[in-house]
Amino acid sequence: MSNPSPSPGSCRFADYFVLAGIDTDSGLEPDELSALCQLVEAARYGRSRETPCPNKASGENFDQSPLRRTFKSKVLAHYPQNVEYNPFDRDAVNMLCMPKGLSFKTQAENRDPQFHAFLITREDGSRTYGFVLTFYEEVTCRQICSAMQTLYQMHNVEQCSSVYASSSCSMDSLASSIDEGDSSTQAKMQRYNSYDIGRDTLYVSKCICLITPLPFVQACRKFLRQLHKAVSSQQTPPLPLESYIHNILYEVPLPPPGRSLKFSGVYGPIICQRPGPTELPLFDFPLREVFELLGLENLVQLFTCVLLEMQILLYSQDYQRLMTVAEGITALLFPFQWQHVYVPILPASLLHFLDAPVPYLMGLQSREPNDRSKLELAQEANLCFVDIDNHFIDLPEDFPQFPNKLEFIQEISEVLLQFGIPPEGNLHCSESAAELKNLVLDELVHDKKNGNLTSTTINMYELLKGNETLARLQALAKRTGVSVEKMEIAAPLEKERDTRCQCSEEELRDYKLAVQLREVFAKRFTQMFADYEAFVIQPAQDMESWLTNREQMQNFDKASFLSDQPEPYLPFLSHFIETQMFATFIDNKIVSLWEEKDPLLRVFDSRIEKMKIYNVRVPTIRTSNYQKCTVLKEAAQAIEQRLVKIDHTAIHPHLLDMKIGQGKYEQGFFPKLQADVLATGPTNNNRWANRGATAQRRKDRLRQHSEHLALDNDLKEKYMQEARSLGKSLRQPKLSDLSPAVIAQTNWKFVEGLLKECRIKTKRMLVEKMGHEAVELGHGEANITGLEENTLIASLCDLLERIWSHGLLIKQGKSALWSHLVHYQECEEKREAIMDTPVGTGPERRKSESGLILPSLKVSLIHDMRHVQQMSEIKTDVGRARAWIRLSLEKKVLSQQLKQLMFNQNLIKKLYKRYAFLRCEEEKEQFLYHLLSLNAVDYFCFTSVFTTIMIPYRAVIIPIKKLSNSITTSNPWISVSGELGGTGVMQVPKNLLEMTFECQNLGKLTTVQIGHDNSGLLAKWLVDCVMVRNEITGHTYRFPCGRWLGKGVDDGSLERILVGELITPVVEEDLSKQCRTPPQLRSPTVARRLSITSLGGRTGKPNAGQIQEGIGESINNIVKHFHKPEKERGSLTILLCGEYGLVSALEQVFHHGFKSVRLFQKNVFIWDFLEKAVTYFETAEEEESQVNLLDGKRWAETSRSLCQYVNAINSAPRNIGKDGKLQLLVCLGARDHLLHQWIPLLAECPVISRMYEDGALLRDRVTVNTLIRVLQTLHDFNITLETSLVKGIDV
């Protein structure tokens, strides 16, 4: 869609006048395009060509009454023959003037003239508008009447024969074509739906049309109606019709921007006005009618769907309603423009375009008031269906709401109520109803009181009518003889309307309402994108280089922009900035560096600058506070001033140089116009023509100058079209050529577009997810937030749905992908029943390092489908398809399983047409290759979205058999915790090392607590690790232990807290092709250090430099954790207790120089040192000699807190060992910000000299001071510990 602006060189109000109708020379010709529609409709209903369809389109259908069939129309004449800058497209104009072809009626039917508009979108996005008045003329050609009589005789014979063959089916079909009001009796039905040449008068449709460069709807409507009135009325018009048509074609100019124009119709003046350069673009359709037809709530939802570039299908019996709603909703997009297929009135011959796998905005005429259920569409997963006549909208699933939606609706409601429009809309919004309602609301609009009293003298009795209470008072007054005289009721606050206004009050009110509503919508974007320019990435190269490499360029810093927005805006904005309309908006901003600004962009930028000037004293911090529009009054006044004071008056119609006898016509018949006087305009150059020619010459000079200085215009235009066509397809199908070859070529373009879109989306997902590698490659930010990731995955789901809907023949439900999956499941289950073997599974067994057998996870498309089908939280097919995509993506089998689905050739041929994407072999291979690239990164898009589902888990305890018993005689237990919750304590079955359990989704697993009750003879147990697997996603976590559980061994612990790491699940046959990112629970930049368990042993120990580096890294990771958005932080337990966490780093500090091994004695642990230090502090607390260690009061508080925490841990009812107690103390100290106080206290304690060597880090004052400063950085953060860590500790 483009901004309404005239074509280059256009300066006339109208380019063509067209007359279309029946060609008496060729007679009655069935509409072949409607026959094509019939075949499409039959396929849509899943019927064969021979099977009668009860609701198929009109055409050569002998089941239908001849009066209900449509016949081929033709353009009878158009003037002038051709306009250089706007070539006449005869086929397109004929098709859009009469989308259903010719229509016949008799004198018994309503034949009121009908007005509708249409538009033709050129390949470059520019538009031509058409305005049509369709009326009925009596058929005077005897041959046509006889042909209709013959058709009725054939129809009656066929009806009679079919009664005996198929019972009453044909009568049902006949009755269905009769209006409700005329179906009361059999005789009436036959009278209404029959034709007798001797009894009835036959009428046929004809239309007159104006083709204009700008959408002056009201002016064209008035002109055409006056022209028709001149033909149908008994009074002869003042001048021949040619004079008025010649005048509007050649002598009425376009009004300049910001000016108004008056020209003459047949019976009175006609006014039009055009907004100025700083105002909102021209929009002349009645926006009031859009709100009345849809209602405010529905309109805002539709507006949101259009912004997110979903597929939009408008549905109505009235062509003008389709056009008005489509134009109205796109006008509200300012400053953005719809960039995809835009066909507000879809002709019958183009119904196959509803299967287009691209975003579109189309209007489809309904055949009956309530036939929505009979309309089958291939793509419904992302479809917004708008039934205009029934005030109904069917929305897609799970799309974000418009920011500040409630406040937004409230502000629009206030504007509507000021003009007497109910926000809930008006279902019966016909022209007659609107006229009647406006008479009632006329006074209410200007009434400053709470009523609708007129300012004229009225009778009090009239006021009392219609109110029961007042009616009783009225009767009482009559009985008592009290007379109620007429009284004057005036509205003193009412402002008199300016009588100088050149248009009706109704038109003025509509203009004011429309501009104020548009200003409210425009204000929302001005507020949301006030700082957008700061995030535009300016190109460093010239225009030619930028255009050439546009696809590879990143033009907008999306991550920084989103981080600057209020959180309530993010769900909508994260989707919106991925749309083509936003990308084109940013492209236009960049192109404005070299060229003149796009008109919409210029107006939008000027409004932002104006807003910043007014708000110069206000801080620029982004908030979600709603700001109302403050320019409503000024916008309405600007239009009213133009309509009050007319700037230009066109030349009046005058007699033309016509021969004597020309210009006469017969009443009720539109005459054959004199082509010679309408072929060309006046020879003299008037002022507006001179101005237009001068401006054109100036533009030509500038264009020639730019050709010498910069890029050749043709090449530049080619680049611009290629750059702006990224990710989109045709704007409007060609209407002039509908041959099978053209349709095939169109579908081939769809296939190419889908493949290109897949490549772009997967590349974006891969690059954004790869983190720091993306920065090195120059593709943007280092990290991708969960919001952006979810947006990209939702976009991928939408793409897959559109691919699977292309060329679809058979579908169940709204989701084309899920329908295919269900068909595949049925085929596989039948094959499984025949072969009596389970559907495909992966490798049967997998052994761990210790030799314990771990059953492998089944890898099967059917298996994953069954998991999704068992999810009771998902109620729709669209939701199931999206869940399956997310699950396959998380398991890294999306490409593999789609390949399995796509290469079932028998099923594909059954479900899809030949031109479908899924039947293009080479494109399928490329498509799967792009999806395969996503296996290079880890996604948790299923686990993180479906947080409330029940998931089965499998846990395996792996002991070290060489040094311990494989089975313990005690009663073991485990407790599993994740980012979303924990299981609590679960008893492991005795004499077993494996268990399965089901619980609500735990998210990414973080810790496992394992322990036993120390009962039996073989209670001591050396555990290597615990492995836990999500049985749906296949994610397997390894929780390393390597420590003893039992009294009198190791540190005496009966339970341990283990921190997990994600390992590579075996889900593919070729493990060599398995690829993944480094484990998320480790830092990939630091070499693997020795584990905590080896620090007290006799192996090599880290040096002081490595220990200090580890401390810095662990603290740095915690700081980065808190600087991420709260929803993106992940598990803090990993950073505290993980392999390279804070606990591990501090343990290395304490172990450095520690005298842990005694000759002929048991090992000494760090906890032993802490207990001795606490004993020392407790006994020496009141001795004066200790005051010199630290400041007395501060020393007492610090030592008291350390003693309190150590004693609380020792007295806790938990069987954790000494290393576990140290871990717990460090976590509690970090939580309560006490570590930096305890470290110097312990370093100055006399016990340290007995338990540490002289070179220990804790005895080095410089190292201790550095450690204190590093630990103090944790003060700014609120650290919350998992329940599993602090269970049973009361401190």
Number of strands: 28
Helix content: 40-55%
Specify the number of helices. Answer: 43
Whole-angstrom Rg: 40 Å
User: Which spans of ≥5 residues are poorly predicted at pLDDT below 50?
Assistant: 39-60, 167-189, 429-467, 484-499, 685-729, 772-784, 839-851, 1066-1099, 1184-1190
Mean pLDDT: 76
Q: What structural class do the secondary elements suggest? A: alpha+beta
Largest sheet, in brief, is:
6 strands, antiparallel
First and last CA, distance: 66 Å
Overall spatial form: elongated
Strand percentage: 5-15%
Question: How does this model look, in words?
Answer:
It is a single chain. The protein is of the alpha+beta class and 1291 residues long. Strands 1, 2, 3, 4, 5 and 6 form a 6-stranded antiparallel sheet that branches. A 5-stranded mixed sheet has the order 10-11-9-12-13, with helices on one face. A hairpin with a 2-residue loop joins strand 20 and strand 21 (981-982). Helix 11 runs antiparallel to helix 15 (505-528). The two termini are 66 Å apart. About 16% of the residues have low confidence.
